[in-house]
Hints:
The relative contact order is 0.12. This protein folds into 2 domains: about 15-45; about 55-360, Spore Coat Polysaccharide Biosynthesis Protein SpsA, Chain A, CATH 3.90.550. The strands form 5 sheets. The chain has an 8-stranded mixed beta sheet, sandwiched between helices. The chain has a 3-stranded mixed beta sheet with strand order 7-16-14. Strands 2-3 form a two-stranded antiparallel sheet. The longest helix is centred in the first third of the chain and has 42 residues, at about 10-50. It is α/β, with parallel strands linked by helices. It has helices at about 1-10, 10-50, 65-75, 120-135, 150-165, 185-195, 260-265, 280-285, 320-335, and strands at about 55-60, 85, 90-95, 110-115, 140, 170-175, 180, 205-210, 215-220, 225, 250, 255-260, 290-295, 300, 310, 315, 345. The protein starts with a helix and ends in a 21-residue tail after the last strand.
Amino acid sequence: xxxSFLRRYRSMILASIFFFYIGCGITLSLLRLECADxxxxxxxxxxxxxxxKVEYAVIVLSGPDNEAKRDAIRATWMKFANNIFxxxxxxxxxxxxxxxxxxxxxxxxxFYFVVGTQGLSELSILRLNSENNRSGDLLLLDSFEDSxxxxxxxxxxxxxxxxxxxxxxxxxxxxxxxxFVRVDLIIKDLEAYAPEMNxxxxxxxxxxxxxxxxxxxxxxxxxxxRARVYLNGKWQEKxxxxxDNYLPYALGGGYVISQSIVDYVGRNAxxxxxxxxxxxxxxxxxxxLDGMNRVHDIRFDxxxxxxxxxxxxxxxxxxLPSDMFQLYKTLVHTHGEKLCKTENIVRKxxxxxxxxxxxxxxxxxx
Length: 366
């Protein structure tokens, strides 16, 4: 009798089971969406709250496919931010790093690897999202295609985002993903000497443009004022018209700008001209700004080719991931006393002459 009943009402029973599962699926989907929305809202709230505490931002311009380089930075010099700690309301430096010690990230220092996502394949975007889910430090900008010719555009979009989101920012450290940066020592010097940068302790490394009773900002790096404009090749500048040389600029392997410059460039990003090189563009964007302390520092090894390795260096450009791990290993083994396994000078540095025409600025010395 039961079998007969099943045969008679089989269609009705199957339809009921089908709609039951459909209903369950819709209900679970709605629950997942509600949970996801709640989680997203929570993460946004936490993110917004944490952004309001950021005083020092580090942006690393990176390519979509450079995950290995980003991981090398995460595993090495990014960790040195923990050498800056707060005591009685002041930010102080102390070597505070071992191989195994777990550190809580400082909420006043924030790292961003900037990548443009326009035109990327779905697979590339999935990989970047997966990387960001584990690291939480990618700044993915979908408003431009990531390429060398768009580096200045990338910088404009980055500064615009930083201006809109980091309301308590004091200084920005900019570098590339092949730069090894002593972020801890840079922040230490900023806390102690900025914006004047005229202390006896650093006088052998720095030259600055002029003394003012007070400064409206800081532009700090390794400057060049004699560079000839590239008329062909990778760095060709088809739109350059200002003069025969590039305007004085800090080389892009690593430099520091104050919040006042971030604010100015970010606020005017839509109307500022730009060139192939983002560092050249930064020199142009800041050229007309008055009251900026332009500081040249030989501890920034940021030229097209490394000048070698000395312990006092704050930035070393053109470093492979293997180089970063070696520098990191040496620092850890010496408790922060030595950067280089063996110190060597391959090329001489120069102290910038601010009181002469730019073409005479950069006579080799040290």
